[in-house]
Amino acid sequence: MARRGRAAPRRPAGRAHAPRPVRRARRRGPAVPHGWGGPVRAPERRRVLPAEAAVAAGERGGLHRRLGRRDLTAMGVATIVGSGIFVMTGVAAATKAGPAITLSFLLAGVICLLVALCYSELAAMVPVSGSAYTYTYATVGELPAFLVGWNLLLELVVAGAAVSIGWSGTVRALLDSLFGVTLPTAISAAPQAGGVVDLPAVLVIAAVVAVLVGGVRLTAQVTTVLVLVTLGVLATVVVVGGAHVHPGNWTPFTPFGAHGIVSGAALAFFAFLGFDVVATSAEESRRPRRDLPFAIIATVGIATVLYVLVAAVLTGVAPYASLNDPAPVATAFKAFDAGWIGDVVLAGSAVALTKGLLMIVYGQSRLVFAICRDRLLPPALARTTRTGAPLRITVLLGVVAALIAGFVPIDIVAELVNIGGLFAFAVVSAGVLLLRVVDPGRERPFRTPFVPVVPVLALAGCVLLATTLAGLTWLRFAVWLVAGVVVYAAYGRRRSRLAVPAVVRPPAEPAPAGSEA
């Protein structure tokens, strides 16, 4: 029976049926590949790189996983123990804290331990290169992450320059003690120190870059040997120097007051930046979720004990005001007739600084590698060699550090290092708090204890130390920060992984049984 009502319109014969218009889905943001065969959508207002995307990118990033727990701890100790104690102890004691530099190191060590606990949680969750930069990308967003990476770059490049300046001072003292050779000031000091260029500082950076180009396995082997030499030297300093301590040199103990202790801690903070290098090596760790937290915390603990002991000996052997130079160990041992042992300590100091410089340049290259891979900086810089070393980045950063070391005095260099590091550490501490609120259910192989107390104290400690830095340092930092915003706006924002979706090929479907090959 025919249905009553309006008859459906007839289609004219020979005309094809017009397809129903397809309604377009509203765009939610650019697609980001996560390596599992599908895209991850990034929010429009706050660009956050999903942790899964960061880990997947690290798995195909080109670096080789060859480092174990011992290697990571040795690399952290290599960076911390040496670069700080052999360079910054004298400057911090003479200009900031006096003999109370021991308390400054203790305060800086406690703050760094709190930050290290925060680092460990994020490092285990996002075990890829980039350290605080990558953690911020996965928690806070793209622009804050780029600025953290930008400031970590300032910290590491300038730290490399500071250590090379200290190496130059130590080698000059060693040449004078062993052979009576005094290098001309024109080729051994920066222009503001009365010279033309600090050539030894430039040459040691060139040698370190050459070792790093050889690959991470060679770097780890060289580092392990140098760590043993350094620990032997520090033990000699404590034992031999301890026998020549004059308690009168510790009076007055706090010539600059309580404010001097905090100011000394802000400057001594430079000496604890090695655990950040451990975090940057996540993609080259065999078991990063287990080994990174162990190496980070062990590095800070070992360094704090050694720093307090050595600082007490140096300020007890020589008046603190006489230690204001890039080679405080050499100066302290000149205060008594150490004989051949003094020369051995000087040679070991040069070895320790070489090791510290090696790890700092390694860390900065891995940081920029991660930023370039995310296309916030030109990705062509992140290409690796056959040995897994990012050649272009390593050479470029080495050239920049050499220019700073050759022409800038150490006091300016040291404060720039600290303000960049304090900024990054404060953001990491805040990131742990933020992630516990916005994503409490995420898997955490290592959990920061006593949250929110530990992250809040770490954040407050970083802010406290930063407030003691000179106004000119804050001005230089502001200029660097503005330059980072300009670079991000002009290049990174339009070319990042979250702005330009990469092509993700779905996995091939298996052929049906019985089909021809």
UniProtKB/TrEMBL annotation:
Source organism of the structure: Actinomadura rayongensis
Main location: membrane
Signal peptide location: none
GO molecular function: amino acid transmembrane transporter activity
Transmembrane annotation, as ranges: 72-94, 100-122, 143-167, 199-218, 225-244, 256-280, 292-318, 338-363, 391-410, 416-438, 450-468, 474-491
Topology class, membrane: Multi-pass membrane protein
A Pfam family this chain is assigned to: AA_permease_2
Region (Disordered): 1-43
UniProt keyword Transmembrane helix, yes or no: yes
Alphabetical keyword list: Membrane, Transmembrane, Transmembrane helix, Transport
Protein name: Amino acid permease
Biased composition (Basic residues): 1-29
InterPro entries: AA/rel_permease1 (IPR002293)
Any one annotated GO CC term: membrane
